Amino acid sequence: MTVLVLGGAGYIGSHAVAMLVENGYDVAVVDNLVTGHREAIDASIRFYEGDVRDRAFLEKTFEIEKDIEGVMHFCAYSLVSESMEKPVMYFDNNVGGCLSILETMEKFDVKHIVFSSTAATFGMPEKSPISETTPQRPINPYGESKLMMEKMMAWQSQATDMTYVALRYFNVAGAKADGSIGEAHQHETHLIPIILQTALKQRDDITIFGDDYKTPDGTCIRDYIDMADLIDAHIKALEYLKAGGKSDQFNLGSSKGYSNLEVLETARRVTGQDIPSQMGDRRLGDPDELIADSRKATQVLGWQAKNGLETMISNAWKWQQSHPNGY
Ligand code: NAD
Ligand code: UFG
């Protein structure tokens, strides 16, 4: 039986592939390499290069991979600011991709899917921490597209015997513990890789976007989840569905928040580098604080975040130093 990993050459998908293989799963990968890297997955993995929106290609892949026990779906465009400028492109890829995948799964009678949703589906929540009952009110096309994907899955699972788990990640960070794979986005926007590029002197400094938020030090607070913990949740979710668990959604974070300045200080400590920084203006659309309430994932999936911010930064630093220019 095979786990088909869609978007398996991306940052998170490539770690899922590696950890699935380490745990004895047979794995095949689909990716169009729009933001992913072939080098991020082992050469021995069965790899299908193509777009999930291309039905003929996807059906052919499902035909070849006859014994798919479940799908992990990581494909998406996922930059908030880009989604504000190109909403249609985001709905096309994220929602269009989801449509094609659900149709193909139904056609080939594949029963389970675990997929990447996001804290961005919550928008600017009034209460923190954010639980599964917090209203989802996205404030950008990226978050909206992911909420639409959640709803498509929910309706499809009601109408058929397909079951799904939507995992709403908070801020994902880290790399494989040996530093062999990690985050290699061409247009990097995330805080931790930008901090580490600065530590490596690939950038002169890091600009912290705003210190007038309603938080103790004025900078935004985020909840960081380590890659190994995140993939552990995917594997637990897949096993839960295989065991007959009902379709559900889970918020995934460490349930602990760090301000942007605290992340910077931790990175200075872990790397032993100065990491020059400056204070800049707010970035559009950043909520003051996003912290997950992940108790439901603990109760239902038996999952718990184990690794802290230091581990995430330390592993990402190993990756950054050994791959200064990505793959
Ligand atoms: P990524 O861009 O590194 O990975 C996405 C992968 O999907 C890439 O390899 C890309 O080439 C592939 N892809 C995209 N569209 C495709 C298509 N139409 N057909 C085939 N392949 C396609 O992004 P990531 O950071 O690894 O994120 C993975 C998922 O997790 C995304 O769905 C994202 O929305 C979600 N997510 C990420 C974060 C985060 O902090 N990184 C937080 C919340 C949710
Ligand atoms: N930040 C800076 N300087 C930078 C980059 C980021 O100060 O150069 C700040 C941001 O303003 C924000 C914090 O660092 O306050 C975290 O920003 P990221 O861009 O690293 O992450 P986001 O919180 O914006 O978004 C991430 C994912 C989304 C996901 C969201 C959920 O990119 O896909 O987490 O919380 F939806």
TrEMBL record:
<keyword id="KW-0119">Carbohydrate metabolism</keyword>
<protein>
    <recommendedName>
        <fullName>UDP-glucose 4-epimerase</fullName>
        <ecNumber>5.1.3.2</ecNumber>
    </recommendedName>
</protein>
<comment type="subunit">
    <text>Homodimer.</text>
</comment>
<comment type="similarity">
    <text>Belongs to the NAD(P)-dependent epimerase/dehydratase family.</text>
</comment>
<dbReference type="InterPro" id="IPR036291">
    <property type="entry name" value="NAD(P)-bd_dom_sf"/>
</dbReference>
<keyword id="KW-0520">NAD</keyword>
<comment type="pathway">
    <text>Carbohydrate metabolism; galactose metabolism.</text>
</comment>
<dbReference type="Pfam" id="PF01370">
    <property type="entry name" value="Epimerase"/>
</dbReference>
<dbReference type="GO" id="GO:0033499">
    <property type="term" value="P:galactose catabolic process via UDP-galactose, Leloir pathway"/>
</dbReference>
<keyword id="KW-0413">Isomerase</keyword>
<dbReference type="GO" id="GO:0003978">
    <property type="term" value="F:UDP-glucose 4-epimerase activity"/>
</dbReference>
<dbReference type="InterPro" id="IPR005886">
    <property type="entry name" value="UDP_G4E"/>
</dbReference>
<dbReference type="InterPro" id="IPR001509">
    <property type="entry name" value="Epimerase_deHydtase"/>
</dbReference>
<feature type="domain" description="NAD-dependent epimerase/dehydratase">
    <location>
        <begin position="3"/>
        <end position="253"/>
    </location>
</feature>
<keyword id="KW-0299">Galactose metabolism</keyword>
